[in-house]
């Protein structure tokens, strides 16, 4: 089974947002939202030692995706090829996963009221085509392929050319979107846009920490009470009840 | 009892007469509600698959998902059943507002008085064996039933509202997120009450007439006199008014035929049962498009276990691959559900007829252990035989015979011939 990954060469990226436009049009992303977007770091440092880079952000299809566990209905799941998907027929739009994602890759589509995000253009892959952002990239900065194919470009870039993941000290969930850069762009991006800690919203916290234990205790206590009543009655025998 | 003026009537007479407690519409609503709760609890529990929130074992989630085909189907089914439930309740609420909601719900089902509070205290103490005080007289519903009703009437709108918010995404993410939690919490509260309700109705011997009143609508007057004394007095007063010509005469309630049938203590005569079985077979042909069966269902169960334990082996095996196909739910078969229904129906009918008990049917010469061992051995032989013959007495002889399959008749003749000869040699087991 393949293990899909993407590599973006930040030295080549010119921040033109062609990938964003291609993705929005491919997936009918409503205005104000995006499955992928390009964020400039701006000029960092002190003149004349200034540096800048573009952060091409999207779903990282992490090895250990923090968005899967909080999904109550199991709409968010990881396929065998590593692609993290949202089953739109199963999503109820509670948004637990949106807050769980360290990369802010998820949004609630206001048209469908379901959560939407990058799926590496899974339906294009099935037809043997590359993701829309890769084919559109004007600078040819994006690469997509199978990380397990040791003769492929992706394998070479990740394992021999040292493409980096955007991770922080606290958040290490194994993202599968890698970044190359000859002048330290990936490090700059990681410093400017560090992944946030996965968070369960208040409703989710209450559910797992308070409501669920309380509910189980309530049902359990009722059951125990009934068992006591039942055995008391059994000991007294049915004869005592005048039928 | 508390009212001193009441002359004690002879209980023998009271046990003979039935008085009407429930309207047929309420009985139907009750059982519709019961079935819906069963469905929604099963599917709802399986829908919560997240590691943070799941409260049932993984195998249960897998099994229900498997039965539904896909999880999306499961959600659709849960929502469809929920919407049906809401619709039926809405229809009842709108059309029954005057007659039912005002009178029944507000006055009789939820209004607790002083007697009720005392009743609750004494009832609990008595169950715990700590009191012998007599229970205060009760209305048509006792205080326990009223408490349950009160809780349900508060929780049901919460369940319906949060369900609609989730199903139709009414509102922002935060609201939907909280709706999930509230939905779960409200259901948990109702379930804890429901456990007592089901226990009281199905197990508690004193309340047996209350259970039957949910089938027939009637309770013995003796039961009303003892358990719902205030209501019994109301009924008596009305009857006196009728007798004096001061109120509109009411039709005298007749004991229903259903009640008579359900209380039948004898087994049905074999020919009736055979006729009934034939009609059941006809109905399954009409409704599900296939006949009855037994061994095929067990094969499916085994195939399901196999597909969990050794999926690779099962889907490659020449025989099991007939059942285990990638992407196709193994348990999605009529016979699988039919067998569950047969077991449940057997228990219910045995219970209604008062035949329910643990026993080992055996001949006088052998021990129960021998009987069980022989039954297992015989079951294994006939199970293997059924698969060789591609059907058993149900699937091949009954369903096949009903469509005049030649194989069915050959099989049936062979079964009788082998049985006739075999019985002679094995007669010591039974005689």
Task: Give your account of this protein's structure.
The complex is a heterodimer of chains A (about 240) and B (about 425). Chain A is of the alpha+beta class and about 240 residues long. Chain A has two domains: about 5-190, 2-Layer Sandwich (Alpha-Beta Plaits); about 200-240. Chain A contains seven helices and twelve strands. In chain A, the strands form five sheets. In chain A, strands 10-1-12-11 form a four-stranded mixed sheet. In chain A, a hairpin with a 2-residue loop joins strand 3 and strand 4 (about 50). The longest helix of chain A is centred in the last third of the chain and has 35 residues, at about 200-235. Chain B has about 425 residues and is mainly α. Chain B folds into three domains: about 10-20 and about 95-260, Fumarate Reductase Cytochrome B subunit (Up-down Bundle), CATH 1.20.950.20; about 265-355, no CATH class; about 360-430, no CATH class. Chain B is about 70% helix and about 0% strand. Chain B has helices spanning about 10-15, 25-45, 60-70, 70-95, 95-110, 115-125, 145-170, 175-200, 210-215, 220-225, 230-245, 255-260, 270-290, 295-310, 310-315, 335-350, 370-390, 395-400, 405-425, 425-430, and strands at about 20, 220. Chain B has a two-stranded antiparallel ribbon. In chain B, helix 4 crosses helix 7, helix 14 crosses helix 16 (about 335-350) and helix 18 (about 395-400) packs across helix 19. Mean pLDDT of chain B is about 85; it is low at about 1-5 and about 255-260.
């Amino acid at each position: 089974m393949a293990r899909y990954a993407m590599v973006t060469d930040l030295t080549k990226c010119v921040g033109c947002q062609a990938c964003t436009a291609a993705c929005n049009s491919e997936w009918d992303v409503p205005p104000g939202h995006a499955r992928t977007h390009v964020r400039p770091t701006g000029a960092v440092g002190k003149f004349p030692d200034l540096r800048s880079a573009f952060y091409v952000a999207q779903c990282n299809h992490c090895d250990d995706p923090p968005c899967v566990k909080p999904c109550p209905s199991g709409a968010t799941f990881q396929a065998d090829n590593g692609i993290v998907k949202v089953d739109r027929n199963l999503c109820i739009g509670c948004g637990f996963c949106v807050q769980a994602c360290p990369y802010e890759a998820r949004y609630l589509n206001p048209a469908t009221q379901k959560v939407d995000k990058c799926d590496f253009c899974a339906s294009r892959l099935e037809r043997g085509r590359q993701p829309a952002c890769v084919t559109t990239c004007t600078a040819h900065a994006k690469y997509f392929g199978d990380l397990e194919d040791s003769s492929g470009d992706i394998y070479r870039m990740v394992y021999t050319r040292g493409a980096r993941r955007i991770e922080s000290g606290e958040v290490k969930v194994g993202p599968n979107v890698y970044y190359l850069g000859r002048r330290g762009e990936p490090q700059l991006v990681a410093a400017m846009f560090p992944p946030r800690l996965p968070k369960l919203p208040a409703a989710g916290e209450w559910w797992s920490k308070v409501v669920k234990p309380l509910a189980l205790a309530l049902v359990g206590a009722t059951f125990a009470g009934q068992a006591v009543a039942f055995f008391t009655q059994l000991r007294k025998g049915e004869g005592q009840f005048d039928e | 009892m508390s009212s001193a003026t009441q002359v004690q009537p002879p209980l023998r007479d009271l046990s003979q007469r039935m008085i009407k407690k429930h309207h047929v519409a309420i009985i139907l609503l009750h059982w519709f509600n019961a079935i819906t709760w069963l469905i929604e609890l099963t599917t709802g529990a399986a829908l919560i698959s997240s590691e943070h929130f799941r409260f049932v074992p993984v195998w249960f989630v897998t099994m229900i998902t498997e039965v539904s085909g896909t999880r999306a189907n499961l959600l659709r089914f849960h929502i469809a059943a929920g919407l049906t439930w809401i619709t039926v309740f809405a229809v009842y609420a709108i059309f029954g507002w005057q007659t039912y909601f005002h009178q029944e719900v507000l006055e009789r089902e939820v209004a607790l008085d002083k007697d009720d509070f005392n009743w609750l205290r004494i009832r609990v103490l008595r169950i715990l064996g700590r009191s012998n005080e007599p229970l205060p007289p009760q209305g048509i519903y006792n205080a326990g039933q009223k408490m349950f009703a009160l809780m349900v009437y508060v929780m049901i709108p919460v369940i319906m509202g949060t369900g609609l918010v989730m199903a139709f995404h009414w509102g922002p993410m935060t609201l939907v997120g909280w709706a999930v939690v509230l939905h779960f919490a409200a259901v948990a509260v109702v379930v804890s009450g429901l456990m007592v309700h089901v226990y009281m109705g199905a197990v508690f011997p004193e309340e047996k007439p209350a259970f039957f009143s949910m089938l027939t609508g009637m309770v013995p007057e003796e039961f009303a006199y003892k358990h719902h004394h205030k209501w019994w007095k109301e009924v008596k007063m009305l009857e006196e008014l009728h007798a004096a010509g001061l109120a509109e005469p009411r039709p005298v309630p007749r004991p229903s035929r259903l009640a008579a049938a359900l209380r039948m203590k004898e087994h049905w005569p074999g020919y009736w049962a055979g006729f009934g079985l034939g009609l059941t077979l006809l109905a399954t042909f009409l409704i599900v498009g296939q006949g009855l069966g037994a061994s095929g269902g067990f094969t499916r169960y085994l195939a399901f276990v196999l597909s969990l334990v050794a999926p690779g082996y099962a889907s490659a095996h020449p025989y099991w691959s007939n059942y285990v196909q990638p992407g196709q739910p193994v348990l999605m078969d009529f016979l699988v559900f039919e067998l569950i229904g047969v077991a449940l129906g057997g228990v219910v009918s045995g219970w209604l007829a008062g035949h329910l008990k643990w026993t080992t049917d055996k001949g006088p010469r052998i021990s129960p252990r021998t009987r069980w061992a022989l039954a297992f051995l015989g079951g294994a032989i006939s199970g293997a035989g059924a698969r060789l013959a591609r059907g058993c007495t149900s699937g091949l002889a009954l369903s096949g015979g009903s469509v005049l399959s030649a194989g069915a008749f050959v099989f049936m003749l062979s079964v009788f011939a082998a049985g006739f000869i075999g019985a002679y040699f094995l007669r010591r087991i039974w005689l």
